[in-house]
Amino acid sequence: MTRTISVADLQALKGRRQILTMHVDDAKEAAAAAEAGIEAFTCEVDEQLPRIRSAAPRTFIQAAHRQGELHDESSAIREGFRALELGASCIYFAGSLRLVETMAKEGIPVTGHVGLVPRWSTWTNYRSVGKTPEEAADIYRRVKDYERAGAWAVEIEVVPVDVARWITESTSLLTLGMGCGSACDAQYLFSCDVLGTDSSRMPRHGKQYANLAAEEARLQRLRVDAFQAFASEVRSGRYPERRHEVHVEPSVVDAAKRLLSQAGPSGVFSQ
Known about the structure:
By secondary structure, the chain is an alpha/beta fold. The chain is 41% helix and 14% strand. It contains ten helices and eight strands.
């Protein structure tokens, strides 16, 4: 595909195969993920967003605003369109259904969030949500609320597989599963877990495929060693060597001195 992946492209994949989704933090991660065939990103609406878009021009990008930036209809429309202008494909929003509906009516694609929602975790704590009939029913209702509000997709995070599968099969929304097995329309992980860049505890649903933290520590040691070697050679006189320098014949300096001796008080050479 030579153009940016669209909402319609991803909707057409519902029920056919899982879509690959990754949260990326910067342009380097975006470029690597795009080259690897990751079809959709999530990221923040900040200075990295245009760089991520530039690094991955064809990837679908779901961008989330900082909490509180979308607080009424006016800010939702203004900030929603601003995010699209910066390179987002849709808005990632876990807030008021009223604001979801406001953006959807303006044609701004919105992805919702149910289950374990970190920014609202004070109501649930960090745990699997949906293990009881009441919680499972509440998640189902919330997804249907997003559907009625005009959202096009919803993240389902750390919800039991059977509940996530039931909801995925019961909604027209594309479901992005994190910690839901293979039940949802998309499989979603964070780059920090995949790359091993986060030193905090790995979530149960996460899987580390590389250890960039250890590699970065190795590179940092190389940086320190190189700087120390430079400092040592300067202090001992081993750097710079003659091959690092440019030299002229002594006659060039002598001629420059004669020219200066011929200059008047104003610095202008006499004729």
